[in-house]
């Protein structure tokens, strides 16, 4: 079958040997990023599709952000971490916050931090690894204005967004899937935190 204009693939269950072969190839000198992409290509998108892939990726970034936040809160004793910083007391406030965090921010930031920066990186012929790291660093730095902890959390999110963009663009040859994956992962990540705004803090 075809997935979002990608190449045809066969359905089957022989993914483990393929992943092992890629690991063995890495020991022979392949780049780490290329190896990860090939392993991912052999075990995920052909089986679960673009949208489940985005859901799992956003779940991973959300879980990591929660774990980092809780760890920081316990170690620093700062009880303000994790408390709601947005006013959603009215329907209009909630709508504006939702539109900004779940729709506008993912759209604009995908255009700037993934599509834009990675396009420039390709033009100046940076490697995929350096391109992803550069886009991740810029994405994280752009969130320093909020809180240092937020910038730390966005390191993983930025890496996942940039990696996903490069993966779907280079390995699946789909500009649409590349853009959709980064934007959807970002939107789902923010949507989960938006939902938490309505959950009372237990502490």
Q: Measured on Cα atoms, how large is the radius of gyration?
A: 19 Å
Shape: globular
The overall pLDDT, averaged over residues, is 77
Summing up helix and strand content along with how strands pair, one would put the structural category as mainly alpha
End-to-end Cα distance: 50 Å
Sheet-strand content, in percent, reads: under 5%
* Assembly context of the chains: single chain
Spell out the helices and strands N to C: HHHHHHHH
Fraction of helical residues = over 70%
Low-confidence sequence ranges: 1-16, 26-30
Largest sheet: none
Number of strands: 0
User: How many H/I helical runs?
Assistant: 8
Task: Explain what the structure shows.
This protein is mostly helical and 203 residues long. The chain is built from eight helices and no strands. Helix 1 runs antiparallel to helix 2 (32-43) and helix 4 (50-76) packs antiparallel against helix 7 (148-171). The radius of gyration is 19 Å and the shape is globular. The N and C termini lie far apart (50 Å).
């Amino acid at each position: 079958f075809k997935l979002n204009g990608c190449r045809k693939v066969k359905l089957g269950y022989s993914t483990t040997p393929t992943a092992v072969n890629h690991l063995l190839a890495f020991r022979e000198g392949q780049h780490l990023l290329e190896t990860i992409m090939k392993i991912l290509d052999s075990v995920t998108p052909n089986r679960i599709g673009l949208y489940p892939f985005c859901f799992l990726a956003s779940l991973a970034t959300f879980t990591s952000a929660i774990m980092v936040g809780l760890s920081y809160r316990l170690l620093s004793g700062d009880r303000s971490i994790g408390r709601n910083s947005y006013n959603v007391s009215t329907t209009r406030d909630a709508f504006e916050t939702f539109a900004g965090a779940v729709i506008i921010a993912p759209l604009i930031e995908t255009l700037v931090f993934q599509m834009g920066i990675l396009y420039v990186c390709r033009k100046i012929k940076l490697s995929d690894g350096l391109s992803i790291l550069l886009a991740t660093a810029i994405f994280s730095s752009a969130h320093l204005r909020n809180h240092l902890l937020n910038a730390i959390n966005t390191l993983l999110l930025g890496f996942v967004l940039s990696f996903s963009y490069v993966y779907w663009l280079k390995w699946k040859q789909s500009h649409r899937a590349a853009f959709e994956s980064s934007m959807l992962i970002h939107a789902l990540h923010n949507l989960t935190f938006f939902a938490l705004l309505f959950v009372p803090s237990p502490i």
